[in-house]
Design goal:
Elements lengths: L15 H17 L5 H21 L3 E3 L6 E3 L6 H9 L1 H6 L2 H18 L2 H13 L1 H14 L6 H16 L4 H14 L9 H14 L14 H29 L4 H4 L13 H26 L16 H4 L1 H20 L7 H11 L2 H20 L1 H16 L3 H15 L6 H17 L5 H12 L10 H13 L5 H29 L9
Antiparallel strand pairs: 1-2
Helix pairs in contact: 1-11, 1-23, 2-17, 5-15, 5-16, 6-8, 7-8, 7-9, 7-11, 8-9, 8-22, 9-11, 9-22, 9-23, 10-20, 11-23, 13-15, 17-22, 18-19, 18-20, 19-21, 20-21, 21-23
């Protein structure tokens, strides 16, 4: 993507309103791409954090953490201890960067499935069955519900979304954006209960205990709302994609080398007999592995359940990345054996090595992003700003609907600084939950508001490690794409999901519908 201003689109190709929106997005892309390469941008942001930590600590900025009662102050990273930490932990920051190990481990398994040809065949078959008309909705709903796999879904679905759209003759850039926004912006909605439901419920219960120790918020306290939300969000993603992003995708030229990339014969969607045989055997292997997985997860007394015997906190769910990697590797190998594309055992590690070559630019970007993320966490700037924002909303004394609006906006803005939902809710819940309980708003309802504000802005937060990840994937198809390109693509979805999800909540609230089983 050139850094020059985008050229005007031909007249008459869009409706007036849509054309104006596209011009705004083109401008955002142009301005954003004037920024330095993301590697240098993250390092510059890291420097800004260091400078801010010195300034804010000098004026004594601090708050009382409502979760612990302890005073939280901004830490000066230019102090001797801070400088020593910056130097001593640079390698540790990179090695322990949350997506790093997950990306590498999952790609080891996905690479086997890709190199054997299984992904190509499965995508062609899936696209042929689903059809272009339903592809966006199915991909969006898969990403939203796939949050049950936690962060692992980013690594799996983003490249697969790009391949699926490419298979259907559409822009792979739009496919990866749909996948990214579905997983990130829809993270707190799902057709199924997830581990994060249990985590949020525990935090909310503790916060509600400041007012009423008998209150217990269960993992399914928002289940009715999140189930419907997943369908509504998938519909919103579909509408925005087909009316706005499809046109943006047409304006972004895919690089010649990726256009010519051998991704299977997508011109012919019909599967060959050997491919059908491979997919059949892979399907059987997958079914058997799922039976074993569910038995290990659900059987009473299973050593792979949590220490307290719970299912949602089982390592099989909390560390699902290794499970996904093993499943992809096994079904890919089974497919290769049946289809004749992978007949020798040594081809498995060779495929893994080949699969990792494409992710090296992402790893370079991760080094700079890891330093920025670590410095921001060390400085304490995020928690201080989060508590100040929550206290401000509580001091306004607004009517319930306006209060709800303010809380969602506060969470959405704070999410740009603290992308860990559990960390942010740990800070905000002790303020927001008791405050709204005194206004006769249930803890379950406050938790639902947090979900709405927490997820949609994930896709536009440069603090998020997965922002760097998806930018790396985007550059596979457009080498000159920058931060502006990505933000111009995800911003319409982020805004539409935030507004649409909140309107769904207000409708739910005004109708008095139950958020979960506890309200029946």
């Amino acid at each position: 993507m050139s850094s020059s201003a985008p050229s005007a689109r031909p007249q008459g190709t869009e409706k007036k309103g849509t054309g104006a929106l596209l011009r705004v997005l083109n401008w955002i892309e142009w301005v954003g791409n004037k920024l330095p390469d993301p590697f240098w941008l993250f390092l510059m942001l890291a420097g800004i954090v260091i400078l801010l930590s010195w300034i804010l600590s000098s004026v004594g900025l601090s708050v009382v953490n409502p979760a612990t009662g302890e005073t939280v102050a901004v830490t000066n990273l230019l102090a001797p201890d801070g400088l020593r930490k910056i130097v001593a932990e640079a390698v540790t920051n990179f090695v322990e960067f949350p997506p790093l190990g997950l990306v590498v481990v999952i790609l080891l398994g996905v690479a086997v499935a890709e190199q054997s040809g299984m992904l190509s065949a499965a995508l062609r078959g899936s696209v042929a069955r689903v059809g272009p008309k339903w592809l966006t909705f199915v991909l969006a709903l898969t990403g939203i519900t796939g949050s049950i796999a936690s962060d692992a879904m980013y690594v799996v679905l983003i490249p697969l979304g790009a391949l699926a759209f490419k298979a259907a003759g559409r822009s792979p850039v739009v496919g990866l954006v749909v996948a990214f926004c579905s997983v990130a912006a829809g993270f707190n909605a799902s057709l199924l209960p997830t581990a994060s439901d249990a985590l949020l419920g525990g935090i909310t219960t503790a916060a509600a205990g400041l007012i009423d120790k008998s209150v217990i918020v269960t993992p399914v306290s928002n289940y009715f709302f999140t189930f419907v939300s997943s369908l509504v969000l998938a519909a919103i993603i579909t509408v925005v994609t087909e009316t706005v992003l499809a046109k943006r995708g047409q304006a972004i030229e895919e690089d010649t080398d990726t256009k010519q990339q051998n991704m299977g014969d997508f011109e012919d969607m019909r599967l060959k007999p050997r491919e059908k045989r491979g997919l059949r055997n892979a399907g059987i292997a997958f079914a058997l592995m799922m039976v074993v997985y569910l038995l290990a997860l659900l059987l009473p007394g299973s050593p792979l359940r949590a220490e307290d015997g719970s299912v949602l906190m089982s390592p099989l769910l909390l560390n699902v990345g290794i499970v996904i990697a093993v499943v992809f590797a096994v079904v890919g190998w089974v497919y290769g054996r049946a289809a004749g594309t992978m007949t020798r055992a040594r081809e498995v590690p060779e495929a893994m090595a080949e699969g990792l070559t494409g992710v090296t630019p992402v790893l370079v970007l991760f080094f700079a992003a890891a330093q920025f993320t670590a410095y921001f966490q060390w400085s304490g700037i995020g928690p201080v700003l989060a508590v100040y924002g929550a206290d401000f909303i509580g001091s306004l004394g607004l009517p319930p609907v306006l209060t709800f609006t303010g809380i969602v906006l506060i969470v959405a803005v704070m999410n740009l600084l603290i992308t860990s939902g559990s960390a942010q809710w740990t800070l905000l819940a002790p303020v927001m939950v008791p405050m709204l309980m005194l206004l006769n708003v249930s803890p379950e309802m406050t938790q639902a508001l947090f979900r709405i504000g927490d997820s949609p802005t994930n896709v536009i937060s440069p603090v998020s490690p997965y922002f760097a990840l998806v930018l790396g994937y985007l550059r596979r198809y457009q080498k000159e794409a920058g931060v502006g390109t990505l933000i111009s693509l995800v911003l319409p979805l982020s805004i539409a999901m935030l507004v649409g999800w909140f309107l769904l909540f207000i409708t739910w609230y005004l109708l008095g519908l139950p958020l979960g089983p506890q309200d029946l």
